[in-house]
Design brief:
Length: 754
């Protein structure tokens, strides 16, 4: 098996293994090594002969590397020329490393060899192509140069050499700003840096003082840097036009960008600001420069840092400055900005002018914060999905055992205890699904619900758990309308609000929960944010606690925001409440004053008729000795499911995983139904269904899973399952599903295309 996998790995990675045992230098090659060297499969290698097959000039390198690896354990990675046949030379990459025993002594050298001839040939072709392109660029009419990402010249054609009046040998390899310091602070530097940073092509005309000429420049960014075409256009421009166009170009650049561009004269402290200031920050601008108290617009917490940074840049020898801070808009609010400035100095190095631009980062900062919150929610969903299967496997035997015990118990007291255990197990299963519903958006089951009955359950829990110094009052009319909702989700909403109210009253107080019928008109829906008019049930949860500040009220529904102490709140309670209420097409409204308490109102559309709690169910059906194959990797789930099916007249067979199930089914073709878990080792549920269908396309399959995801039933149905059981399942659900599948009755399976 290991040799087969090694061969597969060699074919995929195109790496062939070799080994030299020490101290006798016995060599071992894989078949891939022999193939590269064009030697027969039975060839027995000798280390020295192997080294002699490399090119003469490479042999000392190989010997030195092998010797050093043996002596010191230093690994090697070489590219060498190898003679595979008398008339054929290859390029190979040879990697080797020492292998030590438990005592640290080097016992052998292991490594791989790879044929890299094709890559080396491609590199040679690329070099030839590059030479051809360079020759072409040498003869174009424009000056042309390339600049790498370290701002060094990497190519200069003849025309460029002629136009700048300097030999290319003195420029190639030098930093642009060192070779031409006159470019600093000019449109050349600004445009080049912009093109390099944004990947956008830039084109401009500019005056270059050292040559007393105007140049038309086009800079094209690439992964390697910039390709710059330039041409002397001095003859095309009149002296008067030169000054006007220069100024106009700068203004047009400021208008074309979405940033707020500024230009400050450091000697007069007068600043020219582009229209972007008014667009982004509502700050009115003038056509000409005006005195501006820039520091006064910087947030107090950022001001000293920003001013000190600018001062250091001006007093130093640098030619640029940048920072991020909060800048005050005209309406008094603050925007997060990125400000970049380029310093222009006189011949003595003193700063005379600073030009730059501001980008509004406010929306980006918000998106970053939302992204981080989304990542945290995704982590919650990943964690919930990971434990859901295990939790449901724990709950499955509890619910099934209770079902069996209830059948054999006559004592009303013991039956009541079993009912409590069963209800708790169901609630646990519902809560697992509820965590997934919040984190992944899994829909709950919606049925007609009487909120009056739900309030009665919550009231009992709160009175048993809430401190005695808090008075609890619940009230609802007997004619309270029903709603179509997920019971567990509404239960969670009420519990979250009641627990928050309890925590807001550490010194005691009054917790009041009321429900009422209310018909919302258009005005009322606008006020509370309800999506629809008409009959609603409004649930009010109020307390006399500490209250919520106005600033906190704006954020209380944000995921992970909490006003509680560290360790006492996750920040998910109210965000979960909002998610559930909105999913029910409802609305939530909050009113609070610090020290006066808080009131939450939940509006849920009324409708539906509550299911009767005393509706009698038909007796559970029994089998007629049919064979049922149970496939599950959890032993207690297998055993309890087998006991239940045996009790209800079936012959149950068990398998620990899909491969074992396929083997059993191949021998026992009388199996009427197969119940298979979807997540198992060796062979999972989907693969198991496919294998069973290959043996018998008519086999009846019930899929089950503890992963409560929305698409799990659909995936099972697409694979050929006839029904789906969510873990944990009860005796009732198990027996009725088996009977439905045996009698070809619909078992609530979703459409596989959904």
């Amino acid at each position: 098996m290991a040799e087969a996998l090694l061969k597969v790995a060699e074919r995929v990675a195109r790496l062939s293994a070799w080994r030299v045992e020490l101290p006798d230098f016995t060599s071992t090659w894989s078949d891939g090594v022999r193939a590269i060297r064009e030697l027969p499969l039975g060839f027995v290698p000798i280390l020295e002969s192997s080294i002699d097959s490399y090119a003469p000039e490479d042999r000392p390198v190989v010997r030195a590397a092998v010797r050093e690896c043996i002596e010191s354990g230093k690994s090697f990675d070489l590219e060498l020329r190898l003679f595979a046949a008398p008339a054929r030379q290859l390029w190979v990459r040879v990697i080797g490393e020492a292998v030590r025993d438990d005592a640290g002594a080097i016992r052998r050298i292991e490594g791989v060899i790879q044929d890299v001839t094709a890559r080396r040939n491609a590199e040679d072709d690329a070099r030839r192509l590059s030479a051809s392109v360079s020759e072409t660029l040498e003869h174009i009419s424009d000056g042309f140069c390339t600049i790498d990402r370290d701002w060094r010249f990497s190519f200069f054609n003849r025309e460029a050499e002629r136009q700048v009046g300097r030999p290319r040998e003195s420029l190639i390899g030098r930093v642009v700003w060192e070779a031409f310091p006159e470019l600093l602070g000019t449109i050349f530097e600004i445009s080049y840096r912009h093109a390099m940073a944004t990947g956008e092509t830039t084109e401009f005309e500019a005056w270059f003082e050292p040559l007393a000429s105007w140049f038309r420049v086009r800079a094209y960014p690439s992964p390697q840097g910039l390709a710059v075409y330039f041409y002397n256009v001095t003859a095309e421009r009149a002296a008067r036009e030169q000054a006007r166009i220069s100024e106009e170009r700068f203004r047009l650049l400021a208008q074309a960008t979405s940033d707020a561009i500024w230009d400050v004269d450091l000697r007069t402290n007068e600043m020219w600001r582009s229209g972007g200031f008014e667009t982004l920050f509502g700050v009115p601008t003038n056509d000409g420069p005006v005195k501006v108290d820039w520091p006064s617009h910087i947030h107090a917490e950022d001001r000293s840092r920003v001013v000190e940074g600018i001062t250091r840049a001006l007093e130093g020898r640098g030619n640029s400055w940048s920072d991020e801070y909060r800048y005050q808009r005209a309406d008094g609010s603050f925007a997060y900005v990125s400000n970049r400035g380029y310093i222009i100095r006189d011949p003595d190095g003193s700063p005379t002018r600073m030009v730059g631009g501001m980008t509004d980062l406010t929306e980006r900062k918000k998106l970053e914060a939302q992204f981080l919150r989304a990542q945290r929610l995704e982590s919650v969903g990943t964690l919930a999905g990971g434990i859901a299967h295990d939790l449901n496997n724990i709950l499955s035997p509890i619910l099934m055992s209770v079902g069996l015990l209830k059948l054999e118990e006559d004592s009303p007291e013991r039956l009541a205890l079993l009912e409590t255990i069963e209800a708790s197990g169901r609630r646990g299963s519902d809560m697992v699904r509820q965590v997934l519903a919040f984190a992944r958006g899994v829909d709950g089951k919606r049925i007609p619900v009487s909120i009056r009955h739900l309030l009665r359950d919550v009231q009992k829990i709160m009175r048993d758990t809430i401190p005695k110094n808090i008075d609890v009052q619940f009230a609802s009319p007997v004619d309270l309308w029903t709603v179509t909702a997920d019971v567990t989700q509404l239960h969670q909403v009420l519990m979250n609000l009641c627990v928050n109210a309890r925590d807001a009253m550490p010194d005691g107080g009054l917790l009041k929960v009321e429900a009422a019928n209310l018909v919302l008109d258009e005005v009322y829906t606008t006020m509370v944010g309800a999506p629809s008019t008409g009959p609603h049930v409004v649930v009010t949860v109020s307390d006399t606690g500490t209250g919520i500040s106005p600033a906190a009220q704006e954020r209380i529904f944000e995921p992970f925001f909490t006003t509680k102490e560290i360790g006492k709140g996750t920040g998910l309670g109210l965000s979960t409440v909002l998610t559930i209420v909105k999913s029910h097409r409802g609305a939530i409204d909050v009113h609070s004053e610090v020290g006066q308490g808080t009131t939450f109102k939940i509006y849920i559309p009324a409708g539906g008729e509550a299911a009767g709690v005393e509706e009698l169910e038909a007796p559970l059906p029994h089998g007629q000795g049919q064979q049922i194959l149970i496939v599950d990797d959890e032993e207690h789930v297998r055993d309890l499911t087998k006991k239940i099916l045996d009790k209800y007249g079936y012959q149950a067979l068990v398998a620990r995983h899909g491969a074992e199930a396929v083997a059993i089914y191949a021998q026992c073709r009388d199996v009427a139904v197969v119940i298979t878990d979807m997540a198992m080792p060796v062979m999972d549920g989907l693969a198991t269904i496919a294998a069973l269908k290959a043996i018998n396309p008519m086999v009846r399959v019930v899929a089950s899973s503890g992963h409560s995801t929305a698409n799990a039933p659909a995936r099972a149905s697409a694979a050929g399952a006839d029904a789906f059981l969510n873990k944990p399942y009860t005796v009732d659900q198990l027996v009725r599903t088996i009977d439905d599948v045996l009698h070809h009755r619909p078992a609530g399976m979703p459409d596989a295309t959904t």
